[in-house]
Amino acid sequence: MSNYISQHNEQLSDLERQFVLLTQSGLPIVAKPYQQIAAQLSITETEVLAMAADLKERGIIRRIAAVPNHYKLGYRFNGMTVWDVKDEDVSEFGQAVGRLPFVSHCYLRPRHLPKWNYNLFAMVHGKTEAEVQQYRTQIKDLLINVLQVRNDDSDHGVKFKTNDMLTSTEILKKTGLRLKR
Amino acid sequence: MAMQLSQLEQNIINLYQKGFPLCSHPYRAIADELNSSEDDVISAILTLDKAGMLSRIGAVFNHKKAGSSTLAALAVPEHELDDIAEIVNQFEQVNHNYGREHYYNLWFVVTAHDDKALIDVINSIESLTGYQVLVLPMEASYHIDLAFKINFAESATGKH
After folding, report:
1. Which of A49, A68, A121 sits opposite B53 (nearest CB)?
2. Which residue on chain B is closest to A82 by alpha carbon?
3. Does the ipTM exceed 0.85?
4. Which of A22, A34, B74, B105 stands the most exposed, by the fewest C-beta atoms within 10 Å?
């Protein structure tokens, strides 16, 4: 298979990989969590703190924070809204969608015609289905003039829509990053 | 589920989603900012963790930089969905898997240490399931701030 997943991987040192492995499911909830990690890595707490700061600086760690479980907090409904936006407009309008307060992720992804014609993905979260539907409408109002209208491709039996929303039926698995050794 | 969260617990969730101090005693630093004590903060975090309201407390890694990652989807007949999901879930490299209402009804995220390992996982999923995987890696991100404010007043966790 070709190298279709474009990457700019940063090299992690062995010690950094061990740090990621030790912390990817969370920091220890003790008074001195980095001291505990330091002991496991056989280095000093100061070195662990410096390594974490460096990983943040390099963008490998986005942030060190409390990660809420939205589902448990009452946000039971999520919709993955997908849009077929004209290529020349997707950057500007993608950023506008990303700024909407109810959008948690907004990404550009490749199309796979004729099976998949959507290039812009925006995740919305709400406590009711109606709330999520209303968010979809707000995004549509924003994108209405830049959506791609395609003719039905009768050869493949595919009817192209300009947008769709995929609601989740069940969570089948959810864990944080799990890098293998 | 009618767990009533204390003010301290609510504050921890809403004020520390975007980050907290990187220092020797991070929970004491949070306590200082919230006029609380280190012990109370630790016990509040343990409570939230136990109740499942925190997925975790700690580093949020950039999957793209820590390794190689992509969104992927499968279109499978409804009666096979559970069996296929089980095959997909057995891979440690799969860290989210959602059933969704669509022709493509199984959506998952694959993360591996490099591109080759990622492609190996996708190939294995294809040969084990017999279905072609729709591979949708992120090409650009239009969102910077992943935290959004939890509204406890209207939350299912609060009283109505």
Report:
1. A68
2. B102
3. no
4. A22
